[in-house]
Structure formats: structure tokens, C-alpha cells
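Sample intake sheet
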Amino acid sequence: MHYSQVTLPRTKERLVGCYLYLSMQLRSLWVEYVTYTEERHGPTDPEIFKVIFSEMDFFEGLRQRVASRLPPELVQSLKNVDDYSGW
């Protein structure tokens, strides 16, 4: 499924919850990626990177769709909550 096919919530409160959930998922994927690449023995299967980055692309695209339905000031404030993208 492509992120553009996901039905988004209609209310502001649910959109905020969705945005925060997606941010948490992205952070979790980022931690998984960093942890995997820093293992003692190092990555052995390059295909895992395709999977991780495909997941990141999905969640980032979906989060952008959610953000486009929220006021810009609110999105800016939400970026301060568990958001890895400013690293």
C-alpha cells in the first residue's frame, strides 16, 4: 500500500494523535537503523536497509500528508515532540 491510499482522520485532535504516532514510528525506525549499523559484527544483509528506508519513506510521506491538514504553527510545535528529523 502507498501512503497516499491511507484514509486520514477528519478531526484536528485525531490528526494530532496520528502525527505524534507517526513521529514515534519514525523515531523507532531511526533507532533500529542506527542500532543495526553499529552492531559489533556490522550489517551482513544489505537488503535490510531497503526495508528500513522503505518503511521510513512510507511513514514520512504519511506524516507529511497529516501535517498538510494541520495549521503550520501547530505542526512546528509538534516537531518538538519526539521528532528525529531535526538531527
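Comment: The chain has a mean pLDDT of 86. The chain has three helices and no strands.
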